[in-house]
Amino acid sequence: MTIEELMALAAEQPTRTSRRAGVSRSTIKRIVDGQSMPTINTLKEIALALGLEIDVYARHASDPFAAAAARSLIDDSVPEHPQDYNTWIWLERFERWGINDPLTLVSEAGTLLGIKHNYDAVYLNVHTESARRLPEIFDSMGCDWAMSGAGSASVTLGTAINGPTILWYDSAVKVDEALFGTIAPSAEKADLILVPARSTELVGKTQQKGLSFVAPVQLVIDLHSIGMHEVADFLTRGWRS
């Protein structure tokens, strides 16, 4: 059960949960609405009030709002003052961590984006025919999308780049991955990664010869996220001047 599912359960019986957990109903509502970040102790008390138990463990970060925060600082296509609470939290973290130069921001944001650790990502070996029909496939689903990763870098640099291509798509649309390829044995062996966009991944995308591509800063963040650091560094070589 996720934190969101736990809080949705708490919201179904707010008075009882509030009394048992020692947490006000207004606090519960703010957490449910995403306006407040609960502490571990608060979550533990809410869970126990519902007859559940919190089990805390650490895993690789996979947070799209870190990338959104980085882009809001250095990418003109993203609002400088985001309205999203989760993005603001990351802006505060970056300030606290003393990260403010563009090169460090995109590198850190890529690590935190953690595409290969995203529970919703699907790792595929792409069908050749599907690669040629990307616009048609997405149009048939009425789905907004954009290409990133090796595929986008190859177009940007005008030469073939080895590595997985990333396809960001509107998370509100259910995508049939079978239209794109077969499930890869592992993330490392995939040549296509399908990922639902949950923040600013599609903001600033461009069109070229019928294909959609993510904004340049998003591309660099994505390349860092999938371990293609040398390509990301080459694309940002002009940022050092």
TrEMBL record:
<protein>
    <recommendedName>
        <fullName>HTH cro/C1-type domain-containing protein</fullName>
    </recommendedName>
</protein>
<dbReference type="InterPro" id="IPR001387">
    <property type="entry name" value="Cro/C1-type_HTH"/>
</dbReference>
<feature type="domain" description="HTH cro/C1-type">
    <location>
        <begin position="18"/>
        <end position="57"/>
    </location>
</feature>
<dbReference type="GO" id="GO:0003677">
    <property type="term" value="F:DNA binding"/>
</dbReference>
<dbReference type="InterPro" id="IPR010982">
    <property type="entry name" value="Lambda_DNA-bd_dom_sf"/>
</dbReference>
<dbReference type="Pfam" id="PF01381">
    <property type="entry name" value="HTH_3"/>
</dbReference>
